UniProtKB/TrEMBL annotation:
Gene3D superfamilies: Glycogen Phosphorylase B (3.40.50.2000). The lineage of its organism: Bacteria, Pseudomonadati, Bacteroidota, Chitinophagia, Chitinophagales. It holds the Pfam family Glyco_transf_4. It comes from the Bacteria. One of its GO terms (molecular function) is glycosyltransferase activity. This is Glycosyltransferase family 4 protein. It comes from Flavisolibacter ginsenosidimutans. Keywords: Transferase.
């Protein structure tokens, strides 16, 4: 078979299948895919087969945005055919799935074309939906187990996810690897200039601390976090002599989450999906991550650390993050009194994120490690 023969000769040609919008990358989940592909493409030729709502931006790999838009696309046999056709036409050796949802199509390509199947997970999916009390989580468990067991290599964002998946799905250890989210160190920016821009745009007073939260708001854990900020955190901060504004940035496109726009509080500013999210990270004094539910690595926290911001979050959301001593101010889950106190403490300390952090979460190193695992499978 063409795919198997190419792999034997040491050649590698990758087809990355992405079912959701990642281009241009703005948020953590989008960056996790776009930047991973960008650096992986430096190791081997890569084609990104993605949904039609991705933009054909300039990058070092080829973009074919021909898949349907929407979650049910993964059940669409015509979408499966597009993946199979692209893999066969391009002589693909390794099929890289972002999330396991196109796994049945991937298994078909593996059987018919002899390609190696690699799944890049971002969470343990069935656990995420079990926590949200979706009735179909049990079906997803069996599907996820089937696909990950069939894969030649499976990547996880954290050691905790790897160990849990290995135990729950009875996976072969040699096929598994931790391939974390990466960042680039942000340096040389003008914080005073960024702060002035945000102050002028949102009416933030000169003496007010800017507390930033950024993430997709049409996602239950993030939406619940914003509600908790308004209900639990702001009343506690208002009891202190602490001038501040909380700015929330993020996409909110679905009708079911529009209730967030009705939150009324002069301390809470919903900025929406901003074009220049970098300016908000540069301007912020503290990044707050009030998320309590959901799984996986908190990419938003890593992004904040790349800007040398102090981060206040709940302890369960520090899983998989290391080498960030004196930058993460974590508290027991649900302890809003401690959360408020940590915000004040974090706003009074200015230190740079350790270089050990950037060494561990360097995209080039991460992609190189992933490529070694791909070649070994």
């Amino acid at each position: 078979m063409a795919g198997m023969e190419a792999n034997k000769t040491g050649n590698c040609k990758l087809l990355s299948v992405v079912w959701f919008k990642v281009l241009p990358p703005k948020f953590g989940g989008q960056k996790a895919v776009a930047f991973f592909n960008q650096h992986l493409a430096k190791c081997a030729p890569l084609i990104c087969l993605c949904s039609k709502n991705n933009e054909s931006i300039a990058t070092n790999y080829r973009i074919e945005n021909i898949l349907p838009v929407g979650k049910i696309q993964v059940l669409n046999p015509f979408a499966w055919q597009k993946i199979y056709t692209a893999a066969k036409r391009e002589g693909i050796t390794h099929l890289l799935l972002e999330f396991p949802y196109y796994g049945l199509a991937g298994m078909l390509c593996k059987k018919l074309l002899g390609v190696k199947l690699v799944v890049n997970t971002h969470n343990i999916e069935y656990l995420r939906f079990k926590e949200q009390k979706k009735w179909w989580w049990g079906l997803l468990f069996h599907l996820e187990r089937l696909i990950l067991r069939a894969a030649d290599a499976v990547f996880f964002k954290t050691e905790a996810d790897l160990n849990a998946a290995q135990r729950k799905f009875d996976l072969t250890p040699k096929n598994l690897a931790v391939i974390p989210y990466g960042v680039d160190e942000m340096k040389g920016f003008n914080k005073a200039k960024a702060r002035h821009i945000v102050q002028q745009k949102h009416g933030v007073e000169a003496n007010e601390r800017i507390l930033l939260f950024a993430g997709t708001l049409d996602y239950v854990p993030n939406a619940d976090a914003v509600v908790s900020v308004e209900k639990n955190l702001i009343p506690l901060l208002n009891q202190q002599s602490f001038p501040y504004k909380i700015i929330v940035c993020g996409r909110n496109r679905f009708k079911k989450f529009q209730y967030l726009n009705d939150l009324q509080n002069d301390r809470l500013l919903l900025a929406g999906e901003v074009d220049n999210i970098e300016t908000y990270f540069e301007a912020a004094d503290v990044f707050i991550n009030p998320v309590l539910s959901g799984g996986g690595l908190q990419t938003k926290t890593l992004d904040a650390l790349s800007y040398h911001l102090n981060v206040v979050c709940f302890r369960s959301k520090t899983v998989g993050i290391s080498n960030a001593e004196n930058k993460i101010f974590s508290v027991r889950d649900g302890d809003w009194n401690a959360f408020a106190s940590k915000i004040i403490a974090a706003s009074q300390r200015t230190t740079e994120t350790p270089q050990a952090f950037f060494k561990k979460y360097n995209w080039r190193t991460i992609a190189a490690d992933a490529y070694k695992k791909i070649l070994a499978c």
